[in-house]
């Protein structure tokens, strides 16, 4: 494990290189099929074994590639392979010397940008104009990585919430679009799953390249002067945060005479709104009846476990219902939508398990806060999107039946808003 941590940037670079080289080899072996691609009636095909499934997915990949590199597939393959070999060479260079770390860091940054851009171009095939929202989200993420030191590190939770907000909006808009197109039969579930495979692969590659940039950029700045400035920044950020947390007009007047960071100005605005709202409500402890007060033994951890377990059970039941599909000896590609729903439910189930894991980790180990925030945000957005599809797009397009989705909304909503308010 220690060796892995010490060589993570080298391993990441080699993996990225191998993926690029493997993609080039795949294009070379299928160049003839890409150039001479012909549509076939996939809706009449049947799958009886794993090999049939792989063949149909292979057809979907060739179909996507033929739209973008139809004319010169071998040239694109050569470019990918050269780029991949460049990653491998850079990784070996990183292992030998730190002389070129800064230059290599910017190479990874540019690679991440182009991977995000290519992801947006590829996803335009299904998501249309809404792909721009995803690309803007990736740009905001890149901007945050480049400027995170100019922000108050005590407000990392707010930074992550803003990033999650943009990606959540992108997800809701694109899911709304994709279900419209599925309902109109302008795309098939097979097309969506094939494109989602590329989306996940390219996104992971882009994030990996961005992660390598962060690691190498930190390494190039790790001198004594930077250590002193980092300590100074921590003291300064903590002082400003403590002053803001006083929530008094005097504290805000004191801060107004200082030079503040962008996120600190946002926090002051939120604190002022909260103060005005509290003054307007003017609710005292004695105003709350004894029977409405929280028992001393009660912890929200109990609600998290209860609701999380119920969401897990309901998701597992729905996933099990879709699993009947695999007991059929053959199923038509038209029924691929059931498999598409099964994949969505399987991903949802993994997120519920992740949420419960991070909840227990926080309770017993006092760590894993941002993992919990990520998983509960994903669950909230996923369930709310399914609820919206049920209301406005029809029951057939929702992952759950109406009573179940309503129950899920009632359980996930308080969990989500509690974690928005929770101090990390």
Characterise the protein shown here.
The structure is a single chain. The protein is an all-alpha fold and 424 residues long. The protein is 77% helix and 1% strand. The chain has a two-stranded antiparallel ribbon with strand order 1-2. It is globular, with a radius of gyration of 25 Å. The chain crosses the membrane at residues 6-29, 74-91, 103-123, 129-146, 158-174, 194-215, 300-319, 339-362, 369-391, 397-418. Keywords: Membrane, Transmembrane, Transmembrane helix.
Q: Which residues form runs of ≥5 with pLDDT under 50?
A: none
Distance between the termini: 28 Å
Q: Please give the share of residues in helix.
A: over 70%
Helical stretch tally: 16
Spatial strand order of the main sheet:
1-2
Overall outline: globular
> Radius of gyration, Cα only, in angstroms?
25 Å
Pattern of helices and strands: HHHEHHHHHHHHHHEHHH
The residue-averaged pLDDT reads 79
Transmembrane segments: 6-29, 74-91, 103-123, 129-146, 158-174, 194-215, 300-319, 339-362, 369-391, 397-418
Keywords: Membrane, Transmembrane, Transmembrane helix
Write the layout of secondary structure elements.
Layout: H1 2-6, H2 8-29, H3 31-35, E1 46-47, H4 50-68, H5 73-96, H6 101-127, H7 131-147, H8 156-183, H9 189-220, H10 224-245, H11 249-256, H12 262-281, H13 300-322, E2 331-332, H14 336-365, H15 369-392, H16 402-421
Antiparallel strand pairs: 1-2
Helix pairs in contact: 2-5, 2-9, 4-9, 6-7, 6-9, 7-8, 8-15, 9-14, 10-12, 13-14, 13-16, 14-15, 15-16
Transmembrane segments: 6-29, 74-91, 103-123, 129-146, 158-174, 194-215, 300-319, 339-362, 369-391, 397-418
Keywords: Membrane, Transmembrane, Transmembrane helix
